[in-house]
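Give me the fold.
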Amino acid sequence: MHQKLIPVAGNDYLGLAVDMRLKEVMAQAVLQSSISPMASRFSFGLTDMHKQLEKDLASFFEVEKAVVMGAAYHGGPAFFHAARLQGYDLVLCDENCHANIFLGMRGAELEYQTYKHLNNDHLADLLDATKGRKVVVATDGLYGISGEIPDLKEIHRLCTLSGAQLFIDDAHGVFANGETGKGIAEFCGLAPNDAVILGSMSKALGCSGGFIVGSSEWIKGCLNSHICRGTAIPSPAIAAACVKSLKIIQAEPDRQAQLHQNAQTMREAAQRAGIAVAVDNSPVVALSMKDEFQAAGLSQAFAEAGLSVPYFKYPSEPRHNLLRSVARAIHTPQELKTYGDVLHEFTS
């Protein structure tokens, strides 16, 4: 077996996590500042570099404000604290939403109901049954395990008709999807202010941490949350790398095009091998196997060929027969060929 496996999984969609330009910026920033943020933002942890990053994120997403956090996982608790401050008393969310959304709803002591996965008819029925209440509709943008994308245009239409606020956890979508990289909201045709969006800096951006973008009122509420007041933000060095990464993404749109071309190559390889994939428009290429044992077997076959596509039971995905493989913009033709060869040999 190969000693060092090449990732065809994980979340480094654009290949920026290994980009030397980010490493150089981060190394220089560490020498000038610190490895740790050393304090929360309300003490002395918020530096000029963090302020620049929040300004750049707000500008990129064309909204009023942004707030960065130590992890995107903090987004649910921050947002639903803000929702409670604004008088929202009910959340309707997709049953397969990421765990941070459930953590946030429960922490804010908000009543919530789930609608069937990707089922907007069920969501519409729930909205009709809750008229007169102040409602948040919560959904993932790109479901990180299956790669599925909800019909956000229809969800937004339903929210507009009912007066509900839309909240999108697009940790896996931002920077790697949409015409200019604004994520699944842009991909589905939403305007910048149609939703409050939670994003990750640990995935396509290639760095670490999370953020929320939206109106000044929403961001003010998030900043008032215990999670923002009592936890550290990313280090100044990470913030510097994020600022640099944002510039690279905007200057090099071909990265996203290459990512999606590589994903299409992987889907075609799966099709030739007779393996179904969950969706056909995502950088996540979820291979639908007979059962969890076959999925684990294919994972082992990839490892023996030098590719890392680990199998485990994902907490937010009830289908245990999916093996999550992921395209990266920096995959070489030889790596993609090896991927296809493994699928062919496994099913022969």
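DSSP finds 14 helices and twelve strands in the chain.
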